């Protein structure tokens, strides 16, 4: 009981899920199991990160993944931790990971959930001890067969039943949404309890912000709408001051800051990457679900990200997400400069 642990109002993630009256009973128990697996994976990844310097686990594996990126040792450690924990939860039929070439079909299971994940986001930063994270999206299996298949992963972000991320920073924080009705909740890992404890109830992204976040090194390749919008971000006049620039280069960390402080995070399309860089299933859809369920918006410039139906697991899409005001402004620029 609460008095035994000597704390009042201690809401662990499991307790929050089990008591969530926005969800039917059966879903609550299934989510409790699923999220306990995700919490375990996040604790494992968080620990590996802390010990990486001591155990020589920084650096690369020497292989490249399906996106053409150098695979870091920690990318693989994280991918294995998520896969193993999710399979063991008994709730998962299909998984798609940034680090796997194909969707992973789980055999001999009654699990009916489909999980897409980026086991380690921001891994190019990792050797510099910069904050990184993990991102996940949860769908229901739609295919009729006994086992799931790749088509189960190819659902619009709008179909997500839950999503979230863990951020491995000065603390491990996990932010989740169990659907629009349930909003967005943040939990901080308390090492003394071994539990994620609610620290950011009912998160709301500010409606208006004054921070823009983009890799401006790509600006030579941007289309006019993006260049003009970013010029606007930096401009002053009519009561507007120039926005501050903040870009960590870890999407999770940049989006987490945007959720807390407001403003806009972007990874636009450009002439060398016509779909931008970020992957729909592992990055854009789950974080759009979080941002929109906390009152913000996410667009490609011309289309709401949650309305995209992916045609392949590794699809990339351009993204602008954050405060309503800034995202609506971006959409205006795309109308003006199609
Ligand atoms: P990952 O480490 O999972 O491959 O993701 C990296 C992504 C994302 O975290 C970040 O927003 C973006 O790459 C940064 O890209 P640039 O270095 O091109 O700015
Ligand atoms: Mn990568
Ligand atoms: Mn990533
Ligand atoms: Mn990654």
UniProtKB/TrEMBL annotation:
It is an enzyme of class 3 (hydrolase). It comes from Planoprotostelium fungivorum. Keywords: Carbohydrate metabolism, Hydrolase, Magnesium, Metal-binding. Its cofactor is Mg(2+). This is fructose-bisphosphatase. It catalyses: beta-D-fructose 1,6-bisphosphate + H2O = beta-D-fructose 6-phosphate + phosphate. GO terms for biological process: fructose 1,6-bisphosphate metabolic process; fructose 6-phosphate metabolic process; fructose metabolic process; gluconeogenesis; sucrose biosynthetic process. The keyword Metal-binding applies. Residues 205-334 form the Fructose-1-6-bisphosphatase class 1 C-terminal domain. Pathway: Carbohydrate biosynthesis. Signal peptide: none annotated. One of its GO terms (cellular component) is cytosol.
